């Protein structure tokens, strides 16, 4: 069975007040006598569920269009449950109790904090969400040498209230510091509900638009239940 781990992009997608929201305009409309339906849309490439590639923070890093398609397939997923509160900065102590749930061969981590439950409260979800500190980022990179991607159920690695720490955590994950030889992909604003079954494989489908550092994406998984 396939399950979606991402949100549809829409004009109601929770987003920062300092940036324009996604916008959809209809150009041709069958109901108005046009020969077809056609739309025009504008959106930030970091709105909604999206994937940060190294180029987001690393000028010499790969953009999302530089990846081969098989690099978007993950065969060793693991879910880490780390409950977090408003504006909480993720430190190594938050992660340590959950790390035993994942093997060193894990290639994608799904960090489930419960923050997705606040997504209908846009300002709380976006403005007061949790985020990573650099020490926690270093811990995950050290503990999981096969890691290629990290998905999280909050808007960004960077919490608005801990912007400097979040920027440095981005730099750790995206290959600007110690782990320049193996940067990972960061999937932000993922849908990771509490009732997720065991996952066998995870597939990432980013928008491939030349020139973008990162892109909106669809994330889905194959479960052990094939019914």
From TrEMBL:
It comes from the Bacteria. InterPro entries: KFase/CYL, KFase_sf. One of its GO terms (molecular function) is arylformamidase activity. Transmembrane segments: none annotated. One of its GO terms (biological process) is L-tryptophan catabolic process to kynurenine. Gene3D superfamilies: Putative cyclase. PANTHER family: CYCLASE-LIKE PROTEIN 2, KYNURENINE FORMAMIDASE. This is Cyclase family protein.
């Amino acid at each position: 069975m396939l399950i979606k781990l991402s949100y549809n992009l829409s004009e109601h997608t929770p987003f920062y007040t300092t940036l324009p929201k996604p916008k959809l305009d209809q150009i041709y409309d069958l109901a108005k006598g046009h020969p077809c339906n056609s739309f025009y849309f504008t959106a930030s490439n970091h709105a909604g569920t999206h994937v940060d590639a190294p180029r987001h923070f690393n000028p010499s890093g790969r953009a999302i269009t530089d990846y081969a398609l098989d690099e978007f397939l993950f065969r060793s997923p693991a879910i880490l449950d780390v409950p977090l509160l408003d504006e909480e900065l993720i430190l190594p102590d938050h992660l340590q109790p959950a790390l035993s749930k994942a093997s060193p061969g894990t290639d994608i981590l799904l960090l489930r904090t419960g923050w997705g439950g606040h997504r209908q409260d846009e300002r709380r979800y976006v403005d007061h969400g949790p985020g990573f500190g650099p020490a926690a980022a270093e811990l995950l990179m050290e503990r999981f040498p096969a890691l290629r991607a990290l998905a999280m159920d909050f808007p960004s690695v960077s919490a608005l209230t801990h912007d400097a720490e979040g920027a440095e955590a981005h730099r750790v994950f995206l290959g600007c510091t110690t782990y320049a030889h193996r940067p990972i992909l960061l999937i932000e604003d993922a849908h990771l509900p509490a009732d997720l079954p065991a996952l066998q494989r995870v597939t990432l489908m980013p928008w491939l638009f030349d020139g973008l550092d990162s892109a909106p994406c669809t994330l889905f998984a194959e479960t052990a239940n094939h019914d």
